[in-house]
Amino acid sequence: MAANEVPSETPSEVRGEARGETRRRASRYVVPVAVAGVAAATIGLVPALAAAGDPDLPEITAQQLIEKIAGSETQTLSGTFRVSTDLGLPALGGLASGLGGQGGGASTADPAQKLTELVSGTHTLRLAADGPERQKLTLLDGSDEYSLIHNGDDVWGYDSKSNEVFHEKGASEGPAAEGKELPATPKELADEVLKAAGDTTSITVDGTARVAGRDAYQLVIKPKQTGSTVASVKIAVDAANGTPLKFTLSSVEGGKPVVDAGFTKVDFARPDASVFAFEAPKGAKVTEGAEEAGKSRELPENFEKDFGKEFGGFGGPGGLGKGLNVLGEGWTTIAKLDTGAPAPRTDEAPKELQGFLDSFGDKVTGTFGSGTLFKTKLVNALLTDDGKVYVGAVTKDALVEAANSGK
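Request: output the structure for the sequence above.
Response:
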């Protein structure tokens, strides 16, 4: 064990376990298309550029640095950070409209719609926070801006390009509250990774860095297991207050990081209260969250019957086919689902979907039979021809081995 590696007696909070026709036809391809969504959810928000010249800081062990992060009392900050995401996915443009216009009636200011842009490419954001009750995130896109503001019981989303506003009252009880459970800052990203650390994980301190004008230690997290798609996670931690400043997730495939997220500028002073104030601009279209949620619950006619028929029990009394099983542990955990029905053929998919599915799907064979592997740089899924699905942040070989085992 390296001198600065976390011992096996890591505290439990750190060692915790990782935790119409077109529409009818399109419903058959929910599982493979959802791979992209799973990968996006795994990522959250992220990035920053470190300045040249590593600072000379006192030595610190990985255990001490983790405790510094856990003990950070940072409640206020404002700054700019950049998010770069590369899942290795084909272009998604036009896919939504190709699926019969699903989601087309949603407000462009709805966070669930707008923040999906962070799944790919590089984006610049401004962030402000004043404790758990007030946060503001602004996504910059040329002269256009999208702002998401949480102020007490109110959540506002504003899209300047369309001049649309999304508003939700009583956010602590609505969908916005669920959204707050997702990692939204480098610190939350770091917390999620650290919770997954255990005997399957190596955690070390690997030098120092200068990030957003701040001295920082570099915490490096790597799987000890083979078969994971994750090569490493690197977190730059503010040497003074323990706040994570940058988060980088690299894939075993190499190339650009899957996620590279960090502050380029940061200030820990309390932002002015006016930063979190919002009033809908004159002439803006305002959509209330409860109203939008009601629309999203309206399914196409015969959806449940068709979906259950096409996917062997999904949406029907049988629930998720024959059930969901979890195989393995740690970084090589695989979720297995038996749909109880033969897999759909991609050549029968709507033409808007065929190119997308074929571009990130490979035919594979094994003692289990044959199937299609849908791949990203982070999350992969194997859909066998007899209707079993294996999904995880693991390599192709690991998925095929799991299928061959017949578990």
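The mean pLDDT is 75.
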